[in-house]
Structures are given as structure tokens and as C-alpha cells.
Specification:
By secondary structure, this protein is an alpha/beta fold. It is built from twelve helices and five strands. The protein has a five-stranded parallel sheet, with helices on both faces.
């Protein structure tokens, strides 16, 4: 699943853009301040940023520079009200695109997809046609969006979905064929694979970025999913060996 960071001080606009992206099967992390946006940007593997630069705690130039310093090459799409020279100013600040508000859903999706770097698409456990339980779809999407959160647990997710831990565990296994722990492990390892091949971060840093409690836990779970250690995976990628595919959707049941 593509991952988009949406930044907007207007809560209604923030929620609307998030719903548009989720409706198109695109993951969205939402932030209403520049500080929160940078925190998410450091934690989540973001493919595209959609931001309204009129924030209370950050100036436009400072925020875009901070994004670039943290991870250069991530396209930034600026949104804002129509005004003379607005698009020119956004381009001067380093934005890849300027969209006038209100942003239409089709236009937003088209621009996000067109600005996604080739090879950066991450197909995750997207809602499958045979998933009939809305709680399952909500839970899987939450795991995919917040795999990096070390405090994400079955209990906290069940509370968010509005069911008991036992019920959520049961319907997840019935429709996805996996447990909460297995789905979360898979999402974290998938993100780690991306970081191993696109960054020079050490194993300890990657483990922390994707939500593992320790490097040892990271190494153990990574090998369980990929059948190789993180170091072996990185070396293989550098040599041009095709990484083991782990991005195919999980097996689902129609029951």
C-alpha cells in the first residue's frame, strides 16, 4: 500500500483528504502540526507528502527543508487556496505540485500516483473482496498504517475497533488466516525490507523505526518471515539478487 503523510491545520480538510486516500486503498498518516508531521515522517516510510504550509508552529520553507533533510527525494504536494502566484511560490519552496483547495478526490489520487517514485509502491494487506467483516478491514488497515507504533497491541486495537480482544482475534484468523501478531510482524518486516534497500541506517535504527522492541527481536522475526537475516537481505539486494517476495496479500477465507 502507498503511504501518504497528510499535514493540515484544518481538521475538516485533514479528515477529508484522509478519507479520500483510504477510500482509494492508500495509507494515510494525519498530522495537524509541523512537529507532529516530522515525528511521523521519521517513523513511517512515507512515499508522498500532502501538506498545507499554513501551520501555526512551522513556516513553509522550514518544514519543506526539514522533510528534505530527513529523507531527500520524497515528493511534496502542497495544497492551498487559489491565489496569484501560489503555485509559483510552492515550486520555489521545492514542492512537486500545487493543488488548489477544495481538492477533488480524483485529482488528488491522480497526482499522488503520478508522483510516486518508480519501485516505491508497497502493496500491503489491502481489503480483499471476500473480507465481509468491517472490523477486519479496519483492523488490518490500522496495522498497515501504524505498524511502527510499539504500543500497538491486540487489546488497544480491539478497543479502537469496538470489540473484545477475543472477538477480534477470532475474526482476524477466520478471514485473513493470520493472527494479530503475525499480521503486525509481517507489516513491520515489509517496512524493514524497504529501509534495508533504500537507506544506510544500521539494524538497531531500522528496528526502532519499524516498531520492534529490540534488535534481537527484529532479527528473529525478520528471519521467520524472510528466511534470511536482515544483513543477508541487505547484502543480497546490493548484489542485485531479487529479494524474497513478501508483499502478496494474505490468504483469506470466505467464511
Amino acid at each position: 500500500m502507498l503511504s501518504v503523510l497528510v499535514v493540515d491545520a484544518d481538521d475538516d480538510a485533514l479528515k477529508a483528504i484522509g478519507e479520500i486516500l483510504h477510500g482509494a486503498g492508500i495509507g494515510a498518516s494525519l498530522a495537524s502540526t509541523g512537529l507532529h508531521a516530522l515525528t511521523l515522517f521519521r517513523r513511517v516510510l512515507v512515499d508522498v507528502v500532502v501538506v498545507d504550509l499554513r501551520l501555526s508552529d512551522f513556516g513553509g520553507i522550514e518544514l519543506l527543508r526539514a522533510f528534505r533533510d530527513e529523507r531527500a527525494g520524497v515528493p511534496v504536494i502542497v495544497t492551498g487556496v487559489a491565489s496569484p502566484g501560489a503555485a509559483i511560490e510552492a515550486g520555489r519552496l521545492g514542492a512537486a505540485e500545487y493543488l488548489e483547495k477544495p481538492v477533488s478526490g480524483d485529482q488528488l489520487i491522480d497526482v499522488v500516483l503520478s508522483r510516486t517514485p518508480i519501485g516505491h509502491v508497497r502493496w500491503a494487506d489491502e481489503p480483499h473482496p471476500s473480507w465481509t467483516n468491517p472490523q477486519v478491514m479496519q483492523a488490518v488497515r490500522a496495522i498497515d498504517d501504524r505498524y511502527w507504533d510499539s504500543e500497538l497491541t491486540l487489546r488497544s486495537l480491539a478497543r479502537e475497533v469496538g470489540v473484545s480482544s477475543e472477538h477480534l482475534c477470532r475474526v482476524l484468523r477466520r478471514q485473513t488466516g493470520g493472527t494479530f501478531v503475525a499480521l503486525l510482524r509481517r507489516a513491520r518486516v515489509r517496512a524493514a525490507c524497504r529501509m534495508l534497500t533504500t537507506t544506510t541506517l544500521c539494524m538497531k535504527e531500522i528496528a526502532a523505526h519499524v516498531g520492534f522492541s529490540s534488535p534481537n527481536r527484529f532479527a528473529r522475526d525478520f528471519k521467520k518471515v524472510c528466511a534470511v537475516t536482515p544483513s543477508e537481505y541487505r547484502i543480497g539486494a546490493l548484489r542485485g539478487d531479487a529479494p524474497q517476495e513478501i508483499d502478496a496479500p494474505v490468504t483469506v477465507s470466505k467464511s
